[in-house]
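Incident log, structure service

09:12 report received: a user says their structure output differs between two submissions of the same chain.
09:20 pulled the input from the user's history:
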Amino acid sequence: MSGWDPAASALVGAGVHLAVRALGRRRAGGARVLVLSYHRATHDFRASAREALPSLFVSADTLERQLRQVAAAREVVTLGEARRVLAEGPGPRPRDLAVVTFDDGYADNHHVALPVLARLRMPATFFVATGYVGTRRRFPHDRLFACLSELVRRRVPFERAALPPRLQALLDACADGGPAATIDRLVERLAHPDLLALAEALEARTGVAEDELPRDGLAMSWDEVRDLDAAGMDVGGHTVGHAVLPNLTRSEARREIAGCRDALAERLGKAPRHFAYPNGYHAPEVRRLVREAGFEVGVTTEDRDNVVGVNPLAVSRKVLWENSSLGPVSYSAALAACNLDGVFQALGLARPVPGERPDPVADARPATRQATDPGPDPGACRARRA
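09:34 re-ran on a clean worker, output below:
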């Protein structure tokens, strides 16, 4: 987003971010809650971005700068405290609130992000896809990125990947330029078994083996998850297999939700209270299943203001990564301010991507979306959501 930096600097210099913040508070009738969503943390962004989806990463230095900037304007609280405020009202709080979250459960959350949070004395919630914890399994989006990147390296167009016909048709329907945009469409549109089958077919085609991907892309061990809990961090659910829940059948979605709850309860000795919908996609029936499983909060990635009275099972988050505050050569506090305060959205330059989808079907596996489905509005501000 470095191309936005000159505009951001001019807007911040004119105090537009402060005016947008004040207007937002006035419309909300008091303090709002900004929930931040991160995925992976690294000590070397450039090196990490060559090996996995770049938009999943934030460097330790940028993470600390972003969080310090957040804390300068907002009170950073736990997700549980934010839920209470959104239900009961903020009282006389003079500032907006902020919550820090991380999705998926990558090992670097423990090795890189946790020390930053400890240094800043900030709470956070880590949403964990339990089926990967303590294993060498890789997330589907990482497997797909490695294979599609290999096709690009070999200069093989995606439509000539020579996959089995049904899987090739699925890839063709979702191909959108490079690997990252194509993966976004695949994850959004494909039933989870189809997504896994496509990853396996691409691995067979390219020779890129799941167990040979970079080791730093592994999930945490259970000991590391327990370390987060012992450090005072909140550990929440993120399904078992990182499946987009509206793309499952109802019974499959129920198993994904309850399975991660049970695994966390067994390993940590307490049931998780908070849940993140993989890729931010949810539906009325999915929210009902999450509530039935005992979760008190469900978070999306729709980048809207959270105000008193918001549905606690549809709390919005703002996705951040390295480039959310990257100027032409280094960190841009002005660009970060415009992103954090929603200046670009207020000016109509960006729009949130709606996360609500149709309900899962009751008994038969849902069909993959048709190739004619245009997907989300191409003008929307689409951050990578994994």
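09:41 both user submissions now match this output. Likely a transient worker issue. Closing.
09:42 reviewer note: The chain has two domains: 2-138+213-346, 140-211. DSSP finds 15 helices and ten strands in the chain.
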